[in-house]
């Protein structure tokens, strides 16, 4: 309808509905905009039709709000899944170049929407050359923050530990720590993500995507035991 069209009359609407009896079936949300007629039986008489229609309107509003929330949540989840997949590909490419530690620190913050990321190991036992520069954690540290029983720690409030986050520790107000157990002679380690936003992580959040990234990192590190490339940085 353009601006010069005459306004619709009641007869126009009635004629349209008569020609389109399935209109409300195709567009049930239209009932949300209807005003029900007052009861003809007096104010003291309850009209069950009015009650039923108002109940239906409330259910339609709830359904519409729920659908909008579901769509928004799905979009967020798809975006997070896409960023996680990109993070995994980046990790694999970084390890192939012999720069996994640098890749985690430089690329994962942008891909996973955090402020700082780090790959660290306990400095116990003999370490492959590529792991040695990343071994800043004392023996037993990983068991304290991410024990085997709870290998993912999501902490809403956290003081950044320089042994984990290095120079970026001062930015950390909330963190996510994923336990790494590469095996093949490696000590345990951590894949750590930190945010400057208090409460960015909490225990009620799903951790399956972080666990997936951690398992990929763990797999990469496991291969280091079998000989590092001579030109690979730590």
TrEMBL record:
Transmembrane segments: none annotated. InterPro entries: DUF484 (IPR007435), GAF-like_dom_sf (IPR029016). It holds the Pfam family DUF484. PANTHER family: DUF484 DOMAIN-CONTAINING PROTEIN (PTHR38765:SF1). This is DUF484 family protein. The lineage of its organism: Bacteria, Pseudomonadati, Pseudomonadota, Alphaproteobacteria, Rhodospirillales.
């Amino acid at each position: 309808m353009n601006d010069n069209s005459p306004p619709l009359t009641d007869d126009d609407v009635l004629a349209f509905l008569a020609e389109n009896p399935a209109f409300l079936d195709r567009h049930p949300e239209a009932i949300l905009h209807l005003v029900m007629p007052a009861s003809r039986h007096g104010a003291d008489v309850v009209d069950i039709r009015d009650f039923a229609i108002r109940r239906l309107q409330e259910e339609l509003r709830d359904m519409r709000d729920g659908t909008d929330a579901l769509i928004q949540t799905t979009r967020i989840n798809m975006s997070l899944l896409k960023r996680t997949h990109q993070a995994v590909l980046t990790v694999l490419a970084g390890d192939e170049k012999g720069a996994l530690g640098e890749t985690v620190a430089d690329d994962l913050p942008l891909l996973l929407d955090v402020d700082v990321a780090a790959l660290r190991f306990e400095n116990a036992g003999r370490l492959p050359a590529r792991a040695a520069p990343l071994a800043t954690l004392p023996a037993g540290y990983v068991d304290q923050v991410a024990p085997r029983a709870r290998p993912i720690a999501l902490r809403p409030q956290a003081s950044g530990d320089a042994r984990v986050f290095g120079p970026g520790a001062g930015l950390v107000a909330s963190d996510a720590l994923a336990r790494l157990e590469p095996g093949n002679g490696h000590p345990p380690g951590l894949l750590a993500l930190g945010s400057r936003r208090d409460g960015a992580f909490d225990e009620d959040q799903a951790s399956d995507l972080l666990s997936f990234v951690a398992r990929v990192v763990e797999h990469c590190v496991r291969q280091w035991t079998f000989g590092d490339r001579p030109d690979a940085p730590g």
